[in-house]
Amino acid sequence: MCRPRAAIQADFADVLVNKRKRGTLGAGDFFGEISLLDGGPRSADVVAATDVDMLGLTAWVFRGVLEQYPSIAQKMLVTMAGRLRDATKPAPTD
Question: Edge to edge, what strands does the sheet with 45-48 contain?
Answer without folding.
Answer: 20-25, 13-17, 45-48
